[in-house]
Structures are given as C-alpha cells and as structure tokens.
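Colleagues,

For the teaching module next term, I've prepared a clean inverse folding example: a structure given as tokens, and then the sequence designed for it. I'd like students to try predicting residues themselves before seeing the answer, so please don't circulate the second half yet.
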C-alpha cells in the first residue's frame, strides 16, 4: 500500500486575539495593511489527511464521510480526509512501512496501547493556542485524559461520549407478568427482577440477566488489576469479592447458566433469539445494530433504562467511555489535523453528530435531549433514561489491564460451571496474574 503524504508546507493561521503563528506567504508591501484572514480558516495548499480508526467505530469510507469528511470539507474544502484503516490493514504494518497516519481515532480504553507505540503527541500548545475550553466538556473525560500525562501531557481531544444502558425485552416481562425495569435501579434490584423472569415456557428457557464478562462490573466499580507500583495483582480485595458476589447471585438463579455450554449469551441472544430479558450494553453498540434489526423485520418490544448502580455507589452508571482524536508525532500535516479537531469539538459539529449515531462530548443538557433524534431508531424509547446516572470514574490505566482481564473471565466461568466459591476463583486468578507479571516485567 502506498499512502501518499502531502509535503510539509509553511503554515499561516490567524488566532483570535493573538498574532499569526508564523510568517509565511507573500509579504505585504510597505504601507499596506495585511489582509485579515478568517480566524477559523485553514489557508494551506490542498492536503490529504489520513485517519486510522483504532476501535473507534469508523469501519469504512462511508463512516468517515458521515462523521468527518462532509462537515470538514464544508468548512475546509482543501482538506481531504482519507481512511487508511480496515480489516486487513494493521497499525503495526503501517508503522513498519513508515506510513503512520496523521490522525488516530480511538477510545480511552485503548489509548495506553497507542502511547506505548509512541503514537501520541502532546496537544497542550494546540489547546492553548486555539482556546479549547474544557469546561464545556464532560468533566470525567478531561480527568481521564489528564491521567495519561505523566508530566502534564495531553494526548488526545475527546469528541464523542458513550453511555452504558440496560436493554430489556418487554415481551418477556409481559409474558411472566413482571414489572419492567426502571431508571436508577441498583444491581441488587436487577438481580431480583432476573429471578422472576429466568423461566422456562413451552420448552423455551428465558435468561433473566446476561452479565457477560466481569469487567462489565469491575470497571464501573473502579477496580484496577495491579497495585500502584504495578508489581503485583490485586484481585482478592473485598471490593472484588463484593462485585463477584453479584455474579454469584446471578449464576445461582436456576436456568441462568447452561451447564458446560453458556454462562454468557451475548447480544444476539437478546436481539435475534429474543430470549434474554435484560442485557447491559453501550449506546454506540446498540445504535450500530438497530438498523440491521429493523431490516430483518424481527423487531420486537424492547426498551432502555439507565445502567444500574451499585448499592454503595448510587447515581453512578457504567464507566466513562469516549472516543478521542490523536495527532501522531511525525505527521507532516499537523496544522490541518488541528483545524479538523478544533472543528470536531465545535458546537455546530457536536450538535449534528449528536443528532446522529454518536453522543456529544459537551456537557450541555439541551444537546443531550437531541441524542440520536435524526436516526429515528429510538422513537418511543426511553433513551433519555441513560442520563439518569453519571458515568463512573475509572482507575488509572495500566499496561497490564487487558492482559489480566482474561484471568477474571476464567474466574467467572469457574464460578458458573464448577460452582467454585468466590475466594477460590479470585485467589487462582491472582496467582495466575502474578505469574504473568513476573514473566513479563
């Protein structure tokens, strides 16, 4: 693959209330006043700006066109966004070929991986120069981004939020004459509902609640996997036992586990098979799947409530999750990238994006009322319920997180299938995690 890069050019940008960044272009004749440039304009030569989507949901040119190309070219017709990611295009391959993209779109979950590859550049100068006002953003997104900067670096600009939701199948609740879930429920209350709708009817087993893998609950509870020095695993704490207690309660419901086959059933069991009563999920993920559901003609009576809270953490839902834009250190088109990112967090861009498939990162109640309205996917649904709780804060990310999570998955599996107690499965998980840490220091 030959990804052509635009030649570096001399940058002229006018900043509101400040002098030009650099002197370039034609010099005004003596005595003539220089022309006033549009402070929001990117005045360079035409440039192709390459984008890589690292688990940011930009899967094809059509996705990039809807999210970035159309709104950007309306303002900067000389910037041509180009997607260089795809199923057969790996980031390490691009790095090895010297074809690192200009901008990487990713989420806070994957940011540390990219920083370890040396793909982050500090955006503090850009933020100050362009007066990016973080007081307008969801506060937790900024706190999370600051946590990645060991010396105050700021490696990416959040542009889209994600919220946890609890999907539920009204038909199943109606079948068993059980009241629907409500906004602001706790996990204890959800487990009690699950007991009432985990039943067999005419040979069909209905699953009350699919808790999937343990990070569904450990992350919103704020549980890290290693100590502060990142020298040993911390998987046997009282907090871990408390969270795994919710899994134990769910697995103990007769019919919630299919012995030796399934203890986590997945989103298709909810959407396609329609045999799961309650399924915790993400707004962005369900939004992406709903068009397919409608096309199949197998739509059903479902709805949404807020992501449940822990009894001791009322008002907090699923962990903070957001998409962000990074500018790679060696990009030759940084000024164009900055212009695009500044536009992406403008109120105009955010409003249009928010009315589509993604949620604004701006902390604006008026915008939240417009989430996804243009998609028509949530007509008659309680979508606003997801804002009944706030995103839960996260522990600081470490290089061991995604490496040790599989040990937690195995612990849950052993509880479900082998009926092992919480202390045993967590002790085994911690031992395996510590062994991994020692072998991979």
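(Answer key — instructors only)
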């Amino acid at each position: 693959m030959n990804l052509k890069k635009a030649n570096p050019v001399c940058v002229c940008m006018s900043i509101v209330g400040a002098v030009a960044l650099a002197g370039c272009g034609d010099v005004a004749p003596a005595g003539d006043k220089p022309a006033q440039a549009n402070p929001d304009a990117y005045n360079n030569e035409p440039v192709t700006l390459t984008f890589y989507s690292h688990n940011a949901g930009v899967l094809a040119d059509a996705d990039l066109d809807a999210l970035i190309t159309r709104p950007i070219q309306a303002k900067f017709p000389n910037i041509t966004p180009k997607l260089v990611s795809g199923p057969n295009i790996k980031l390490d391959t691009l790095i090895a070929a010297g074809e690192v993209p200009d901008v990487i779109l990713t989420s806070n979950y994957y940011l540390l991986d990219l920083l370890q590859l040396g793909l982050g550049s500090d955006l503090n100068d850009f933020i100050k120069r362009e007066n990016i006002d973080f007081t307008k953003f969801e506060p937790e997104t900024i706190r999370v981004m600051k946590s990645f900067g060991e010396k105050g670096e700021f490696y990416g600009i959040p542009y889209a939020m994600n919220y946890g939701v609890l999907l539920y199948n009204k038909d199943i609740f109606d079948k068993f004459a059980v009241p629907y879930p409500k906004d602001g429920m706790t996990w204890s209350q959800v487990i009690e509902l699950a007991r009432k709708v985990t039943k067999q009817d005419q040979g069909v087993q209905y699953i009350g609640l699919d808790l999937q893998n343990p990070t569904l609950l450990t992350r919103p509870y704020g549980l890290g996997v290693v100590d502060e020095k990142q020298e040993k695993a911390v998987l046997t704490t009282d907090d871990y036992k408390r969270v795994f207690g919710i899994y134990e309660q769910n697995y103990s419901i007769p019919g919630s586990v299919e012995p030796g086959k399934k203890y986590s059933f997945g989103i298709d069991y909810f959407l396609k098979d329609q045999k799961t009563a309650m399924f915790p999920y993400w707004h962005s993920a369900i939004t992406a799947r709903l068009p397919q559901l409608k096309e199949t003609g197998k739509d059903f009576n479902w709805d949404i409530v807020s992501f449940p809270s822990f009894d001791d953490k009322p008002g907090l839902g699923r962990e903070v999750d957001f998409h962000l834009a990074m500018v790679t250190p060696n990009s030759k088109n940084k000024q164009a990238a900055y212009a695009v990112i500044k536009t992406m967090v403008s109120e105009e861009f955010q409003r249009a994006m928010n009315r589509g498939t993604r949620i604004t990162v701006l902390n604006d109640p008026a915008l939240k009322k417009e989430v996804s309205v243009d998609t028509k996917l949530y007509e008659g649904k309680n979508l606003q319920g997801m804002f009944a709780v706030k995103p839960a804060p996260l522990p600081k990310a470490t290089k061991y997180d995604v490496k040790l999570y599989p040990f937690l998955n195995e612990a849950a599996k052993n509880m479900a299938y082998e009926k092992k107690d919480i202390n045993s499965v967590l002790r085994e998980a911690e031992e395996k995690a510590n062994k991994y840490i020692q072998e991979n220091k």
